Amino acid sequence: MTIEAINEQLLRAIGVGVALLDRQSLKFGFRNDTFDEWFSADGPSDQLQQLFPDLDIDTVQTSLSGTGRHTSEITFKKKRRTLVIALDFTVAHDDVLVLVCQNITRIKELESMIDSYSIMVERNTRELKREKEQVEKLLLNLMPRSVYEEYKTFGVVTPQLYDPVSVLMLDFVGFTDMVASQDPSVTVTELNDIYSAFDRIGEQFGCERIKTIGDAYITVAGLPDPTPDHAKAIANTAIRFVRYLTRRNLSHPHQWRCRIGLATGSVVGSVVGIQKYVYDIFGPAVNLASRLQEFSDPMQISVQDEVAQVLKDQFDLENVGARTIRGFGEQDIWRLSDDS
Q: Which helix (H) or strand (E) holds 31?
């Protein structure tokens, strides 16, 4: 077997089309079987431009004159498949031009597939990021940020004792009758508006809303970051809650009235539950604030004696006498008023 025959077999084996052209006339002098298999379906063509009418011959000649080489790509349909062929022209001699053609269809298909996967991965990444932000926002509505960071890092939240903090417990008057007599969607919408306003007010004074239970709203000052003026912060928050409802009732058909209790003491904060977990606080300050709001008339704020002693030089407080508080015995109760 001659060297030429061996080379021809190798070229066929690797699927490369080879042709030799006259440098000046661009007529084909030799084409191997692979080349003819790809490009001679409509009969042999002697001229390069006849075979590749879309090829810019002037550009080819300019490249060959400058560097002695020119590369290009062509796309054509063969049966039902679109083939992409890479053309590589090289000046082998003054009068001979070598054209090597390589089928890069699979490479192009893989590149297109990779591009599609990249776009899909980017889209999924954006969706995951958006979902992560939504979950983070939801969890931050359920627990303080520092607690959320601990939960995100370790998967658990260590129960913490906070002592002292000030707790505000608010309960609406006649809420049960309102729910039974009004359109539920209207009641829920208004309750959501009011709680949103309470959240904004509490945030102004550094209070952390812990939870809402129906018409009960609990917020705390001094948690999770200790603050020396937690009693003053919770008192200002309570006064503005009442002030907000008073003004709101002037322009709304539904009248919302509340009772508020304020107490200072220790609480334990932690995430409770496994599937429907929620951050919650427990302790004597929570229980006492809940008991105190029961001693309030509508739109009034009942204050623990210990809190009143701290606030009496800065706020309008009235001693309403000793009362027996369930679980806490007999204690003086004070009434906090808005002196503005």
A: strand 28-31
Beta carbons of 265 and 163 less than 8 angstroms apart: yes
| Strands, E assignment, 120-206 | 160-172
Rounded-to-integer distance, Cα 57 and Cα 84, Å:
19
253 upstream amide cis, omega within 30 of 0: no
**Taking Cα atoms as reference points, which of 11, 60, 68, 2 lies closest to residue 37?**
11
pTM of the model: 0.65
What's phi and psi for 269, nearest 5 deg? -115, 135
- Whole-angstrom Cα distance, residue 107 to residue 27? 30
Q: Determine contact, residues 330/324, Cβ cutoff 8 Å.
A: yes
- The Cα–Cα gap between 235 and 231 comes to 6
pLDDT digits (tens, 9 = 90+) for 26-81: 899 888 888 888 887 666 678 888 888 888 888 988 998 889 899 999 888 877 88
Map residue 130 onto helix, strand or coil.
helix
| CB contact set of 297 (below 8 Å; sequence gap of 6+) | 259
Sequence-separated (6 or more) residues with CB below 8 Å from residue 96? 20, 21, 22, 23, 29
Helix H or strand E segment including 334: strand 329-337
